[in-house]
Structure formats: structure tokens, C-alpha cells
# Entry
Amino acid sequence: MAFHTQQLHFVLLPLMAQGHMIPMVDIGRLLARRGVSVTIITTPLNAIRFEKVIGRDKQESGLKIQMIPVHFPGVEQGLPEGCENLDMLPSMNLGSKFFAAARKLQEPIEELLAVIKPQPSCIISDASFWWTNQIAQKFHIPRLVFHGICCFASLCIENLLKSEVFKNVKSDSERFAVPGLPNRIELTKPQLPGIVNASISGMKFMNDLMREAEMESYGMVVNSFEELENDYFQEFAKVKNKKVWCIGPVSMCNREPYDQAERGNRASIDDQSCLKWLGKWESNSVIYVCLGSLSRLSAAQMIELALGLEESQRPFIWAIRYKPDEFGKWLLEERFEERIKKRGILIHGWAPQVLILSQQAIGGFLTHCGWNSTLEGISCGVPLITWPMFGEQFLNEKMIVNVLRIGVSIGVEIPVKFGDEEKVGVLVKKNEIKAVIEGLMEQGEEAEERRERARKLGEMAKNAVEEEGSSYLNLTLLIQLVHFVLFPLMAPGHMIPMVDIGKLLAQCGIKITILTTAHNSKRFSKTIARATESGLQIQLLELHFPCTEAGLPDGCENLDMLPSLDMAGKFFVAISMIRQEVEQIIEKLTPKPNCLISDMGFPWTAQIAQKFHIPRIVFHGTCCFSLLCSHNIFASKILDTLNSDTEYFVVPGLPDRVEVTKAQVSGSMPNKNSNSAAMKDFRDQIREAERTSYGVVVNSFEELEPEYVKEYRKVKGEKVWCIGPVSLCNRDKLDMVERGKQNSIDEKSCLNWLDSQKPRCVVYASLGSLSRLDPSQLMELAFGLEESNRPFLWAFGGGGEKSTQLEKLISDNGFEERIKDRGLLIRGWAPQVLILSHQAVGGFLSHCGWNSTIEGISAGIPMVTWPQFAEQFCNEKLITEILKIGVSLGVSVPVKWGEEDKIGVLVKSEDVKKAVERLMDEGKEGEERRRRAKDLGEKANKAVDEGGSSYHSLTLLIQDVMRYSS
# Structure
């Protein structure tokens, strides 16, 4: 198998608050260790806080992780200079200005993501950055939400918001149960998180935006582990109908002491001094106290806490991140630190919390119940004393005390809002603090059981992040994201647009695997290699094609390689023989595919999709007009009422009157024995497989055929995505040149010849890769082009006996010599999109294959139509009668593949001459036709641009598959 691998690139956008930034940086480091390229975007001062850790990961570990600072417009929004983190706000009254400044980051972040390499695959952003949904949609990548809380608290919030049970509560002291939980959890109204009760938070507008964005996001990342709260994890994922990945405890990615010491802000104590002090105490004897980076207790309450710790007679280490002036004065006057120096340490500022908690001396943790601190305590197997203050901390306390039963509540019932500390005053007295510490640290049966539960949870946490642990596996699943498998029919008209579709999806951050055979893989290897080099996640997987086993010549792996139509039946037999290998490959693919887009010619892929519980989306390779014609003709059984193959009838149920013959619409697959029982059975299989498939993807755009898109969606249950013209994904000249087979002409020679011609004067003629017209018929085409007296570029042939006969006729007639001043012949494959996009081309003589048709439309070029088989007569009707951008050569008899010699000459040189003259005529009719073609070309290009109909449809397709996967 030939693989092309691609670097995944995750962009992380944490809220500028320590409780959010620290775990997000840990998540980034975890992703980088799994081979993902990671970019963390934050503000300059916040970037400085983590530069040592990130720098060490890059330089010493070689991880692909970087932190990019963007200017924070705090001053512009009325914040003090340098105020770039919530813990730097002088007052919480400035909170709204802080979030207003954060909102202004959208534009610079978008500009950054537009140029950053490799192209981002995913955004993980804080829940409060609701606007990152718009960024993710712009770049066609999934956005994952990070809340920074656990599934228990998230489920409580979700159930409270949905039930609004708190609105019936009459007083602030009345307790009520949170509905829909596995355990009975009671709260009071003031203890609710601000996001639940807008009257509490005063931020209802932002809360609503956050929730709406969360509903639209792809999934959620949670810093927790499933074993800790499995019932709540399962229920939360169910009520959110989202992908939820528990990948924590993320703090455990910090295995080295220096990582633990430098996690977050710079520590206010030398880590070696801290460790030395802890090392002198017995196991489980020390109380660690830290009430978080945003907690604000009154000076009086701080004094009570200090005295309670002193009177407990237990060794303690207290990290004080907020110190009211009155409390600082008391410490000095009372010489508190001098009094407790034999068994206590005060850390004035940031403490290396994970380093401290991981020491065996720590036997208890007095915490504010912020989720980071809570989970860090759990990870270290330490029982907790709970002192919640605001946010979801009262919920976390319930989990610690009531659900996990590894903590003791200090008894706080009233939240202390940021800025209201002095108003609240003292809530917990020193004797209460002393009693709770003694209760936690005592040697009784209850305390021992609590310690044992905490110890077991600590072991579970460690196991969760080890290889094969639940969080390790969840991180693997998170990295996998969305994976589409594309399986095109081995024919140029099917493979080329499918590869384009793969590139379009990959440009949206989707991982793409294209299945094909070795020979066909070589045709697209350069294109795919260039796509991967540009940062796209796209690969080709090669299948063994059983040519000789099916009776085909060795190496005959594409319909355009068949020596005769007699081999077509064997070709489809060979296709049916690869089913088992396709199934085995899909089963082993990593990540597991979320969707299979397969050609209509592989009906058995519907069963494979069902086996792997993924949607199968059908690709026909034609437009909605032709698909609707085919559907209505089959559904109405109108063909059964006709007396002859040449009798014209009106296709039923169309917005326009369209007349065709039975011969023109019979047989959408090229087969000599098109009416055979085997062929009928095969068509029945195709129809049944399509009936059970999830939807249809169409290489068209809504503005081209709006009524037919609308009607076809009705008959297909709305799941029809028009995402074309897909050829327009080839903006680079090299992509245009190397699209499909290797060209039979040097592109420079071709372009030089076109450059020498006047604008819109050249007729480009190509009758498709599967056309096998009789050489005498092709000479009539040659003479007609010659007699039109227009410059022309004619692509034909490609090997075989008929090409040899044609070459002899051209040579014997002196044709090439006569037209050398105004004609260019391309023998074999031509860079068609490149040619059609050249300003010299003014007309396209085409067989009306849909790829050629849509490529001509995209270039804004009118056409001469010469349909031959399959749906080409329907496409001609669209071109000439509906869109009115083409001139028909008047062919009414289909030339079935393999029966060209029987038909002989249908089109004379005079017919070609007249049609070309009419097409290129500069009179009113010709000008009007050119105007319509030009207008459609402009609409085609707008459709695929950002905000266009096909751009939007591709987004909807991806979102639909994401929802299905969820």
C-alpha cells in the first residue's frame, strides 16, 4: 500500500485565566506528545508565563508545539495597562470590559490562521470564546469546547437550565434537588453557577451566546477521567448529543519536578526549599491550603483561617495568592510566621501546587473546589477539605463530599463573589477550621475509609492516562476527528472529480483516504503528494485489482484501458471481486472512518457502510437535471409504453418540457449487452443500494439548475449536497496541468500556442476519454474544424487500432500540414481545465460528459454539443434548451460504446462547420449565448468561494456527517 501521511495541527485558544490556561497548555503538550502539531494562541504576558515549559518541550523533547502571542486590546476597552489575565483585574467590575477585549481577538486570530502552516485541523477553545465557532466555520474545521469543569458539574448545569427548577424557589436559604441526576444533590439558589441564573451573573447575553455556540460545536473536551464519574459522563454526553472526550487528569502530563514547579505562574518559593521542608514530615501529616488564584477572602476571614491552622497543631503549607492590606499588617504585628515557623510555611503568591500535592507528606488539601485544584488533589490521592466560593465550586463540593466521599465540608453556605469579600466578612471561625482539619486527619474508621477511597481514585487517575487507559484512548479518539473514505469508479470521468472532492474535504480539515488500484494511484500520486505538502490530510490506498483473475489483460485497471467493449462485463466482475479487500482495509483504517463516499457503480459498498455503522454517500458523476430525468423516467415506467426506440416522449415531472427518445436514455452504463439480464440485475442493485444510502453528493451548483436541485432533493429526502464545480479547487496551474492522466502535450507549448491567439477566438474540441468514434467520423470532425476557418485545438485518440487508422488518414490527407497555422492537435490526454480557463478559448465542442460540461460552464464558455451515450443526451438538453448556452450538432442516435463501426458517420463536416460558425457568430444570438455562459461562469466561481452555495453545502455535508457520528 502507498501511504501519504499528514501532520495534524490543533489550535488551542484558552481563556486568559489561570484555571483555564494551565489545563489547556497541558492539553496542548499531551497532543504534541502524540505527534500533533500544536499552536496555543494567547496574549504576550500570558505567553511569558508558559515560555519555559513550552520552550523545553520544543528544544529538549522536539515536540511540534508553539505559543503565539496576539495583542490584547485591554487599554482600548478601558482596562489598566498590562491587564491580560482575570487574576490581574483590580476589580471584578471590570470583567465585562475584559471579555469585550477578548472579543476583539477574533479578527487577528483569523488573520493568523489564514497564513499559519500546516493548515489547522481543529480548534479547541474556551467555552467563553463563543465567537471561535465563526472562525472554525470560516476555515471548515471542527471546534471543540473546553469548559474547565467536570461532567458532574456540567450535567448539573445542563439539567438546571433545562428544568429551571430554581425559579420556583422562594428564598435564598431554601434547598432544592438538582433534577435528573444519579445521586440526590441539593443546593440553594445563591450557590448556583452564574451561567445558570443570569440574575446572579448579570451576563445573560454572553451566556446565551456561549450555549448557542456550544450546540453548534463539534464536541467537548473535559479534564476528567471516565472512572471518576462514569454515570455523569455517560448522561452528560447523552443530554448534549455531543462527542465528549474525557482526557484527564491533564496535570499528570507533568512528570518531571521542573515541569510541576514551573506550571502556570512563576512560583513564589524555591521548589527545592519547598521539597526539603516537606521531606522532613511523616507521610500524610501535612495540610496544604490554597484557595485559588481568583479567591478573595476578607482580612478578618484570612485571620480566622490563619488562627485555625495554627490551633490545629498540624504541619501546614499555605499558599496565599490574595493578601488584603489589613491581613498583611496583622501578619507582621502578630509575628504569625515567626510563631508557626517550626511547623508551617506561608507561600506569598504562586505555589507549585502539583509538586506539593504529589509529595507523600501531604495528607489533606483545604481547597476552594476549583476543578483544577480538585482534580489535582484527586490525582494525588489526597482527601480534601472543601471551602467553595463561587462559580461551579459548590457543585464540585457536592461531588467531593456526597458522590466520591473523599472530602469534608468546612460548612460554607454563602458564596463570596469577587469584590464582595469585605461585605461578607467572616463565614468560618477558627475553631470550625480546627475541627474540620482534625476530623480529616484523625485516625478513626471514617477518616481511614475516606483516605482509602482517595488513594484508590489517585491510582485510577494514574491508570487513566497510561497507555490503554481510558483518557489515553479518548485522546486517541479526539486526535482522529473526522475521516472520509472516497472510492471512485476506475474511469477518468469518475476518478478526477472524486479526487477533487477529496481535496475540497481535506481543505476543510477532514482526513481523506482515497481507495483505488495501483495503476490509477499513479495517475494522481503527484496531485496527492502536492496536497499533503501543502498541509492537507489526504492519502491514497492501493487495492489489488484482479485483472487476470477476471479474464482481463494484465494491468487493465481503468475503463479507458479496455481493448474492446467485450471486456466491460469482465471489468465489473473484477470490481466485484475487490469487495473483501475494501472491507478489510476500512476495518483497519485509523482513525475509524466517519463516512464513505462511493461511486454508484459500487452498490455493494452500501452493505460495507452498514457493517461499519457509517453513512454511505453516493456519487454519480452527473448533475441534478440528469439524475432527476433518470429517476422520473424509471419511477413513471414511461419507457414501457413506447413502441420504438426512436419515438420522442416528454420526461414526466420536470419544471421544463424536455423530449428524448428511449434510445437516448436507455443504459446509463456502457455495456454492449445493455438489455441483458445480468445488466438489469446490476442496475437493480445500484438502485437498491442508492435507496438505502444516506445521501447523494453532486458535482454541480444550485444557481446552475435551482429547480432541478430542489426537485431532486424532494425525491431523495433532502440529503443532496451540490458542492461543485469541484474542478475549481484546482487554482494552481500545476494542479490544472496534472489533473488526471499525464498530458500528451507539454503545457508550455500548449499555453504558448494559446497565448498567440486572440481572445475568445479558439474552438477547443474534445469528445472525452471513453469516446471510440470511427476514424472516418473523426475525419469529418477534422474537416469541419478546418472549414470553419476558426483557430482550433483538438484533443483526440490515445492509442489502439483506431488511433492508428486515424493517424494514417490525417497523414495521407495532409490535414496537419494544412492547418498548422491555426490548428493544434493533441494526441491523447489534454490539460482540459487549463485550456478552458485560457482567455483565447471562445467555444467548446464537447461530447456532453458531465465533467467536460461543468468545466466548460465554470470557464464561462458556450458549447457545441455532440452527445454519444449514457446521460450525455440529457446533459445536451440542459446545455441547449434549459441554460441556452450551446448549439446542438443534431445527433439523435446514441453511439454505444463498442458499436461505433456499425453506426459509421452521423455528423458530416458541413454540420460541424455550421455549428461552430453559429456558436462563434458575433451577431445578437451568439452574443446573448456568450453572455449567458459568462454569467454562469461567474456564478460557478462564486458558488465555491467563501459564502457561496457550494461552499455552504460542503459545510452542511460535513456537519451532517459529524452529527451522524455523534
Notes: Confidence is low (pLDDT under 50) at residues 1-6, 668-675. The chain has 42 helices and 30 strands.
